[in-house]
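Support request from a user on the community tier.

User writes: "When I paste my structure tokens into the form, the page sometimes reloads and wipes my input. The last time it worked, I copied everything first. Here is what I submitted, just in case something in the input itself triggers the reload:"
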């Protein structure tokens, strides 16, 4: 088995202009200065007199970003929601093109396609974008602590060469104000609980999963053997306060903009091969201990 190269870079913080990529234009300057939870309180919002659009949202913007309001509620369920097994979860991972990673890190959040593109249906070209989840959510995969074979360079969509794996502590899921849904399988852009023929708009589709069902789906994803196609859908954006590492394929060169963005936030960049596992890489760089717990 080939050995991975663990290239961990940490340097003192310094300031510079943010990158402008994949619809993140100008947001690294405006959003980077604000905590992610404050991003929907701007006085710059605009409201369309037409009311709700095709996605079930109000036409509101904050600067150049489209807001996803109103946020969805859970489907009513009289069952008691099980506790999220964060103690069994190693990390959430998100694969992002190397060209776009630096701007996301500067902004300190990942955002949905709708937040970048808005309500114009003709701007969406993937079928999954119009199924409720693809356009509305930021996707992650959950990796259980017991999972030994999860590739350090990613699994499935967003993996391999040309991609940066953002490794995020799962604690964000415990934030009651963070809206997210979960599935233990790939729903191809559908929101858990919804169907292609239910006649609901995107916002309504997000209201078809109850909290007990979401928590059970997440727990099923992190307990036991590897579940490659599990997914978490984060409504509108995913804060990157818990970003702990960036993993780059050993066949790629780290873009200078990405290295600079990571250094400013003191986030290690790690290079690894296809044969390396996420758990092994994180342990070898002392980011987690032998039990899979984060050291900081």
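"...and here is what came back when it finally went through:"
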């Amino acid at each position: 088995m080939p050995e991975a190269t663990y290239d961990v870079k940490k340097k003192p913080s310094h300031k510079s202009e943010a990158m402008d990529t994949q619809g993140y234009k100008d947001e690294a300057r405006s959003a980077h200065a604000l905590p992610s939870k404050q991003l929907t309180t701007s006085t710059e919002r605009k409201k369309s007199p037409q009311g709700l659009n095709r996605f079930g949202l109000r036409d509101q913007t904050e600067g150049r970003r489209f807001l996803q309001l109103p946020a969805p509620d859970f489907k009513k369920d009289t069952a008691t929601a099980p506790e999220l097994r964060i103690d069994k979860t190693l990390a959430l991972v998100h694969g992002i093109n190397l060209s776009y990673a630096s701007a996301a890190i500067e902004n300190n959040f990942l955002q949905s396609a709708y937040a970048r593109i808005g309500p114009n249906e003709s701007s969406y070209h993937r079928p999954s974008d119009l199924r409720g989840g693809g356009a509305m959510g930021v996707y992650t995969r959950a990796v259980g602590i017991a999972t030994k074979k999860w590739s350090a360079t990613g699994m499935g969509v967003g993996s391999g060469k040309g991609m940066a794996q953002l490794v995020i502590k799962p604690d964000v899921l415990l934030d009651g104000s963070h809206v997210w849904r979960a599935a233990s399988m790939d729903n191809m852009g559908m929101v858990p609980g919804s169907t292609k023929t239910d006649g609901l708009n995107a916002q309504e589709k997000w209201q078809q999963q109850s909290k007990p069902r979401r928590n059970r789906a997440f727990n099923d994803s992190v307990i036991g053997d590897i579940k490659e196609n599990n997914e978490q859908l984060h409504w509108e954006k995913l804060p990157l306060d818990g970003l702990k590492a960036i993993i780059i394929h050993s066949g790629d060169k780290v873009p200078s903009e990405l290295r600079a963005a990571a250094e400013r936030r003191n986030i290690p960049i790690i290079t690894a091969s296809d044969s390396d596992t996420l758990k092994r890489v994180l342990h070898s760089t002392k980011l987690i201990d032998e039990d899979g717990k984060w050291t900081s």
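Agent notes: The reload is a front-end session timeout and is unrelated to the input. Residues 1-49 have pLDDT under 50 and may be disordered. Residues 72-284 form one domain. Escalated to web team.
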